[in-house]
């Protein structure tokens, strides 16, 4: 079956630091890949997505590239802000809209 | 603004009672909605797929009689936790696809259930 593995948190960074949250996946076909973000007290929101190999999703300074050869979709941001503090979920969708989520990574950004 | 809305956002109930959680798509019709349960260590577990006009499809290990799902209309799905027990306390989240081609889901704000 499908699965998503992402690095355990929490990840604590200082403001303006570089962020990487690793995500790898297992799928039988060619999934679409997503990063969702959950800010404190809010529901999940789509952060970015990529639907085929070598696609790069980007939004709000975050980027992730769909790497088929390494089955990865690592999330990166060059300079994090305190407002980026949230839980980040990597997910894949192979058929229809059924998402398989990773366990989530909590990010804490401090001044 | 929100495109999927859940109600209530928080509910506290006594053990043995039933609780209903509503999920509405606000500006689009959804023939399919998904119900997730979020555990304390953050993992999201898909519980079931709610299908308008037919029975819900439950994931393995999810009790159908415990978690009743009804997709009453193209904009409303309900999850009823029957005879709730403290171990049912959790954060329940619904989602609906607005774009069936991309797999993108829109999520409700979640409902925190506490069973005393």
Question: How would you portray this structure in words?
Answer:
The complex is a heterodimer of chains A (111) and B (116). In chain A, 0% of the residues lie in helices and 51% in strands. By secondary structure, chain A is mainly β. In chain A, strands 2, 5, 6, 10, 11 and 12 form a six-stranded mixed beta sheet that branches. Chain A is globular, with a radius of gyration of 13 Å. By secondary structure, chain B is mostly beta strands. Chain B is 0% helix and 55% strand. Chain B has strands spanning 4-7, 10-13, 19-25, 32-38, 44-51, 57-58, 67-73, 76-81, 90-99, 104-107, 111-115. In chain B, the strands form two sheets. In chain B, strands 2, 4, 5, 6, 9, 10 and 11 form a seven-stranded mixed beta sheet that branches. Chain B has a four-stranded antiparallel beta sheet with strand order 1-3-8-7, with no helix packed on it. Chain B is globular, with a radius of gyration of 13 Å. Chain B starts with a strand and ends with a strand.
Give the overall shape of chain B: globular
Distance between the termini of chain A: 41 Å
State the low-pLDDT regions of chain B, or none: none
- Helical region count of chain B? 0
Summarize the structure.
The complex is a heterodimer of chains A (111) and B (116). Chain A is mainly beta and 111 residues long. In chain A, 0% of the residues lie in helices and 51% in strands.
């Amino acid at each position: 079956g499908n699965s998503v593995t992402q690095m355990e948190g929490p990840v604590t960074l200082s403001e303006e630091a570089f962020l990487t949250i690793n995500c790898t996946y297992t799928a039988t076909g060619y999934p679409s890949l997503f990063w969702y973000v959950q800010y404190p007290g809010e529901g999940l929101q789509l952060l970015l997505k990529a639907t085929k190999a070598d696609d790069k999703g980007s939004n709000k300074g975050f980027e992730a590239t769909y790497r088929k050869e390494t089955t990865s979709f690592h999330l990166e941001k060059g300079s994090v802000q305190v407002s980026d503090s949230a839980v980040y979920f990597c997910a894949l969708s192979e058929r229809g809209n059924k998402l398989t989520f990773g366990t989530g990574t909590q990010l804490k950004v401090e001044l | 603004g929100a495109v999927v809305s859940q109600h209530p956002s928080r509910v506290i109930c006594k053990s043995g009672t039933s609780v209903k959680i509503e999920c509405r798509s606000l500006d689009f019709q959804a023939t399919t909605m998904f119900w997730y349960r979020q555990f304390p260590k953050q993992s999201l577990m898909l519980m079931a797929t709610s299908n308008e006009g037919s029975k819900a499809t439950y994931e393995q290990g999810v009790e159908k009689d415990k978690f009743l799902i009804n997709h009453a209309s193209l904009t409303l799905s309900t999850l009823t936790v029957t005879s709730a027990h403290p171990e049912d306390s959790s954060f329940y989240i619904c989602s609906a696809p607005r774009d069936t081609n991309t797999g993108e889901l829109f999520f409700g704000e979640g409902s925190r259930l506490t069973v005393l």
